[in-house]
Design brief:
single chain; 307 residues; alpha/beta; FAD/NAD(P)-binding domain; 2 domains; 7-stranded mixed sheet; 5-stranded parallel sheet; 6 helices; elongated
């Protein structure tokens, strides 16, 4: 069959898009290569999503999924390996099957860059975080480190300085700032900037205890309860080159209605240029893209049937 709307990515943005399109009466399928909820399943406690004082990422992911399934939205657990989006009927090739739709929503997401050092994998979600806004409050009155050289690292440090007792900022070279000045960091007595510091290992027994780094060719360590990695994100858009317009960082360009450069193709969530990578923003994007894709799909389906 040809679906009205196919959504690639089953995170908060993709599932929300599916709910809005399905409630508009469209046939909808969501393709997700891992599990419903996407990276939401990797988050510990969430305390900044409206309506939930505290909820685990896995629990919230299940609530999204149950809502979608209650509307009989189809889920395919497959990995997309090829796309053909320029025709009126879009084609999505997966490892096992090929699917078609009048409209496609790209909710592919992005993933944080990792330090790739010893101990990082062991303490993911147990002291190592890639989102200060998400997890900062769990380190209230504790000592933390922020690893990064750009605006996102400074933003995280300034945010954490109001929560944590001590904030170390480790930057390999000099800070590369566009929206901040180093003087802003200096205005906080509990922030220390360690320049020329290369993270080497994360250590601890039952909990994260130390960050080992190299500075001035000497190995050093600091006692910390948490480490926030802010070295950028990578959008999952390798398959989209030549299909839709991307910015220099690989994020998908769109207008306010989530329309991409390709007719009938929409975008939502972390993979979209300008999104601040929060669940609430992803859900908002999903509502818009699901509504707009639904409108486009019904017009295209009617036109096709008349021809």
């Amino acid at each position: 069959m040809i679906f009205d709307v196919i959504i690639i990515g089953g995170g908060p943005a993709g599932i929300t898009a599916g709910i809005y399109a399905k409630r508009a009466g469209r046939s909808v399928a969501i393709i997700e290569k891992y599990m419903p909820g996407g990276q939401l399943n990797l988050i510990g406690e969430i305390e900044n999503y409206t309506g939930f004082k505290s909820i685990s990422g896995a629990e919230l992911a299940m609530k999204f999924y149950e809502h979608a399934k209650s509307l009989d939205i189809t889920f395919f657990t497959e990995e997309v390996v090829g796309l053909q989006l320029s025709e009126k009927i879009k084609t999505i090739k997966c490892r096992k099957n090929t699917y078609q739709a009048y409209s496609v929503i790209l909710a592919l997401g992005s993933h944080p860059r990792e330090l790739k050092i010893d101990g990082e994998e062991k303490f993911k979600g147990k002291g190592v975080s890639y989102c200060a806004l998400c997890d900062g409050n769990f380190f209230k009155n504790k000592s933390v480190a922020v690893v990064g050289s750009g605006d996102s690292a400074v933003s995280d440090a300034l945010y954490l300085a109001d929560i944590c007792s001590k904030v170390f900022v480790l930057t390999k070279e000099k800070l590369k700032l566009h929206n901040y000045a180093e003087s802003e960091l200096a205005s906080f007595k509990n922030i220390s900037v360690l320049k020329g510091a290369y993270s080497k290992a994360i250590e601890g027994e039952n909990k994260l205890e130390k960050l080992v780094f190299v500075q001035n060719e000497k190995e050093k360590e600091i006692d910390v309860d948490g480490i926030f990695v802010a070295i950028g994100r990578t959008p999952d858009t390798d398959l989209l080159k030549g299909e839709v317009e991307l910015n220099e960082q690989g994020y998908i360009k769109s207008d306010a209605n989530m329309r991409t450069s390709q007719e009938g193709v929409f975008v939502c969530g972390d993979v979209r240029e300008g999104n601040i990578k929060q669940i609430a923003c992803a859900v908002g994007d999903g509502a818009i893209s699901g509504t707009e894709a639904s409108k486009y799909a019904i017009k295209t389906r009617i036109t096709s049937s008349l021809n």
